[in-house]
Design a protein that fits this description.
Blueprint lengths: L10 H9 L7 H11 L4 E4 L6 H11 L10 E4 L3 H14 L8 E4 L5 H9 L4 E4 L1 H9 L10 E4 L2 H6 L3 H10 L6 E6 L4 H10 L4 E4 L9 E7 L5 H11 L5 E4 L3 H13 L4 E4 L5 H12 L5 E4 L14 E4 L6 H8 L9 E7 L6 H6 L4 E3 L16 E6 L9 H12 L6 E6 L4 E6 L3 H10 L1 E2 L2 E2 L2 E3 L1
Parallel strand pairs: 1-6, 1-7, 2-4, 2-5, 3-4, 5-6, 8-13, 8-14, 9-11, 9-12, 10-11, 12-13
Antiparallel strand pairs: 15-17, 15-20, 16-17, 18-19
Helix pairs in contact: 2-3, 3-4, 6-8, 15-16
């Protein structure tokens, strides 16, 4: 396994990678990084969780001319969630460089503030096709200095009908000396057509583990529609799951299931396309912080979720096609972990295409489930909302300092901290929730008063 030390990158970037505990490269990083650093166009087929974001982000950062305050790189993503997560990863990799501006341009948030931010320039933009194209059509983005273009999860973009938008964006970019890379979980005919249209003599790289499902154990249960919900407690307890993602095909099913699960005594959150960006962010934070151990989602969440320790995925509804199924179950077994994916089906025809793709599915009877009645899925953490964020110069270290020095918590009592533009979230052991609320609301963080609320 190769280390990042073997790459021809700056000492400062290497030190930053070490500080982020990036030591050994994944297979896709090992194959693509030398090519991308050498300005080759690349098509990379890699599964979710393979480390592809780092693969294309390191070259963006290494080649960045920070004193040249103009957009030099563009990353196009299919969803807001993925775009936000990619932007965060790039920002982490830029920590050793002062005054780097990475701008996210996505729908679901106000357009005018983005336009105003673009007037003040940026180095790297990450966005979704529709919003990027709207800014381009209104002449908000200076494109003439873009030297690097990345299409992340290109297959998902095409599935969502963004082919024409992507081509329209690419046609506006400089053609000479532009490096283009395309990352995709599949390499079907539509991806080949797109690659032919926008890449120049690309090198095709495939992670040989792309179709490997050895880390994901799949179990299929045939069941009546009316019995699905009542089976969920047994599925959770028999697998000793602490973080569960449940997929439904329709928003109304998500809401109905959430009500039914609550009646069964489980805490859960719902993620679907009706939520605005702030609500989506909060939902993902509450789930990833383990304040709510179950998230019920439509396929808006089957891509772009960067949560490493989901140990059980349940397909309450069978996915509409085998590609969606693959992306769903890819939410588990990330970051070298193992995971379980369970699919509930009512008719054989629902799973015919999926059966053809996977040859190691375990078909079992619900009678074989070993329900552990003593197992309780109780969240260890509670998440608190703080009405201050990046615009207030609030940092994670400031929150940790206040919790330790003012409240008296230990570092092990503090979980994830997520800082957004105008607000923040912090996970703390649930037994300290009331104490933290009282102390933080009665004291200052970094010399300033903030309101703190339960979530």
């Amino acid at each position: 396994m190769s280390t990042f030390n073997s790459l021809n990158i700056s000492k400062e970037l290497l030190e930053n990678l070490n500080s982020l505990e990036f030591k050994n490269m994944t297979k896709i990083q090992e194959k693509t990084l030398p090519l991308l650093l050498n300005n080759s166009d690349v098509i990379a087929q890699a599964k979710t969780g393979s480390g592809k974001t780092i693969s294309f982000s390191i070259p963006l950062v290494e080649k960045l001319e920070v004193k040249k305050f103009t957009i030099q790189s563009m990353v196009i993503c299919p969803t807001r969630e993925l775009a936000n997560q990619v932007a965060q990863e790039i920002k982490k990799l830029c920590r050793h460089i002062h005054n780097v501006k990475v701008l996210t341009l996505c729908g679901g948030v106000p357009f005018k503030p983005q336009a105003a931010s673009l007037k003040h320039k940026a180095h790297i933009v990450v966005g979704t096709p529709g919003r990027l194209l709207k800014h381009i059509s209104e002449n908000n983005i200076e494109l003439e200095n873009i030297k690097t273009l990345v299409l992340d999860e290109a297959d998902k973009m095409l599935d969502m009908g963004f082919y024409e938008d992507v081509i329209s964006i690419v046609n506006e970019l400089p053609k000479d000396n532009r490096q283009t890379s395309l990352f995709s979980a599949t390499f079907e005919e539509n991806i080949k057509v797109l690659a032919k249209d926008i890449l120049n003599n690309p090198v095709f790289i495939q992670d040989e583990d792309i179709h490997s499902n050895q880390k994901i154990t799949q179990a299929f249960y045939k069941i009546t529609q009316a019995s699905k919900t009542s089976l969920i407690p047994s599925l959770i307890s028999s697998n000793k799951a602490s973080s569960v993602l449940i997929f439904c095909n329709r928003k109304v099913t998500c809401e109905e299931l959430a009500d039914e699960i609550f009646e069964l005594g489980f805490d859960c959150v719902v993620l679907n396309s009706d939520l605005d960006q702030k609500q989506r962010d909060e939902t993902v934070v509450l789930f990833s912080n383990k304040s709510y151990p179950i998230m019920i989602a439509t396929d808006v969440a089957s891509r772009g979720l960067n949560i490493d320790d989901i140990d059980l995925v349940i397909n309450y509804d069978v996915a509409k096609d085998e590609k969606v199924h693959t992306h769903r179950i890819g939410r588990t077994a990330r970051a070298q972990a193992k995971g379980k994916a369970i699919t509930l089906y009512t008719n054989e025809y629902e799973i015919e295409e999926i059966k053809e793709l996977y040859n190691d599915i375990e078909f079992s009877s619900i009678q074989n489930l070993e329900d552990d009645l003593s197992y309780n899925l109780i969240p260890e953490y509670r998440t608190l909302y703080i009405n201050g964020g990046k615009k207030n110069k609030l940092r994670a270290g400031d929150i940790v300092g206040a919790l330790i020095h003012q409240v008296g918590l230990k570092s092990e009592d503090i979980g994830n901290i997520d800082i957004f533009t105008f607000h923040s979230y912090v996970a703390i052991k649930k037994e300290y929730e009331l104490k933290v609320l009282k102390e933080l609301n009665n004291n200052k963080i970094k010399g300033k008063k903030y309101q703190v609320y339960k979530r």
